[in-house]
Structure formats: structure tokens, C-alpha cells
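Morning, I've got a small favour to ask if you have a moment. It would help a lot if you went through both lines with me. Thanks so much in advance, here it is.

***
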Amino acid sequence: MLEEFYKGDKLWEDFVSVFPKHDSLQCKEEYKQLFNNMNMNKDLSVVIYELIGSKESLNWVTQDNPALGGLKPIECLEGNLLNRLRTMLMRF
């Protein structure tokens, strides 16, 4: 599975640093909902919001995803599954 290809937290942090972390995101209703759906994980929320789009991201995180082994992104928020999700996002 994808988690076997996870290159570590440093590479994830470098990837996340590319995305804007501006305070105005927190004012957007779609981002607030996504942030809550992603267990208040700011890094994942920003990356998904920016990669997938403001409107699409809420739907995307609740759909089965073949790249995640048929899991929904919201089911991949802990342990090795988190690394699976991170790896998939870095390959987007």
C-alpha cells in the first residue's frame, strides 16, 4: 500500500510549506467544515482545500478512493493510514 512509500514527516512538512496558510481560510465556511471533518488537522485541511478545491473538497473526503485501497480520506486520519493519505496527496 501507499504507506510503504511514505518518505517521512520532514518531506511531508516541506510539501505542506508550499501551500498558503493565510488566516482568511479560517473565515471560509467550506474550510471550517473540512477542518472539522479532518479532525482539526490543519496541514491536511489546507493541502486538501488547495489541491481539490473549496467546494469539491468536502465531497472528496467522504468518497471511497481507489488510491487509498477503497477507503475514504476521512477514514485515514491515524497511524499508517494517515501516512497512506499523505503519500497519496504528495503524488497528486
Remarks:
- Residues 2-90 form one domain.
- The chain has one domain: 2-90.
